[in-house]
Amino acid sequence: xxTTQRKTIAISMGDPAGIGPEIIVKxxxxxxxxxxxxxxxLAQCAIHMKTSSSKFLLVGDRSVLEEACEITDTPKxxxxxxxxxxxxLNNAAAKSFTHGAISALCGKAAYEYIEKATSLCMEGKxxxxxxxxxxxxxLRAGSVPFIGHTEIIAELTNTNDPLTLFExxxxxxxxxxxxxxLRKACDLVKKERIVDYVVRCxxxxxxxxxxxxxxxxxxxxxxxxxxxxxxxxxxxEIIPAIKTLQEMGYKVAGPIGADSVFHQALEGxxxxxxxxxxxxxxxxxxxxxxxxxxxxxxxxxxxxxxxxHGTAFDIAGKGIASPxxxxxxxxxxxxxx
Length: 337
Hints:
The chain is α/β, with parallel strands linked by helices. The protein has two domains: about 1-160 and about 300-335, 3-Layer(aba) Sandwich (Isopropylmalate Dehydrogenase), CATH 3.40.718; about 165-300, Isopropylmalate Dehydrogenase (3-Layer(aba) Sandwich), CATH 3.40.718.10. It contains eleven helices and eleven strands. It has helices at about 20-45, 60-70, 105-120, 135-140, 150-155, 180-185, 190-205, 235-245, 260-265, 280-290, 325-335; strands at about 10, 55-60, 85-90, 130, 165-170, 170-175, 215-220, 250-255, 270-275, 295-300, 305. Strands 3-2-1-4-11-10-5-6-9-7-8 form an eleven-stranded mixed sheet, sandwiched between helices. Strand 1 (about 10), helix 1 (about 20-45) and strand 2 form a beta-alpha-beta unit. The longest helix is centred in the first third of the chain and has 25 residues, at about 20-45. It starts with 7 loop residues before the first strand and ends with a helix. Mean pLDDT is about 90; it is low at about 45-50.
């Protein structure tokens, strides 16, 4: 897509019974009001500067979005903003489900929002996709044969094993495995897999404009195994992978103990970290700043960013969910698309 044209960001509404609709209307209202205020200030000062001017294609159910405005005390005028187009699939009327409850209707609707928003990106009608949270149990109840966003979008874009990248401030974390048991995650720590991931993660970073710096490989065992005292994966798989990558010309270091590597990357010593399993990297990023940790899916024909939290069924429908993560996800999509 021509990067000189005005950016268009597709947004999928997420599970209607969760907090997705609420944080979307809050986030868009704040972003668009901020944009208008900035433009008015520049105009009053007779300064001609280009401000952020992305358009938004919001895929969801209009009745749910209107209800979300009422719940959050967000002016409904946001839904008629000239920079926002709502693609109403009309598949989950606001009164047809209960907030905070698992629902086959909502699971199926959430999948349909993702499907439509992904197609907009694949057709070149949007530069990037931002996703609101979905619920795994509702997906299953709705007979959707996928466990989460990454798996759904991978299927829709015909992508084999996409990469997950978390970003918060200066810290970027890739994941060697995602939604598998800890036992299986340890079994997946193999030389060939690590080499493959570093090669692909490095390519993904370059596509995002990050070409300088070294990638760190986190250790799997306490103190990276202490030369085999606490496990031999570092000696048998991780170190051989790092040596092979260095011989191939890749800037990679490690294994570095998981109790320090994320802090070092945050301080700028490394441009990214390869976390060896799901919780290892999630805990590090979310502990630092839960709301501003953003998930980016790389290695696909489209760019996708997402909030780092779930549907929060316990507070859905109460209007108290914070829009910060959604705001950051939209900004990341604008930044990298």
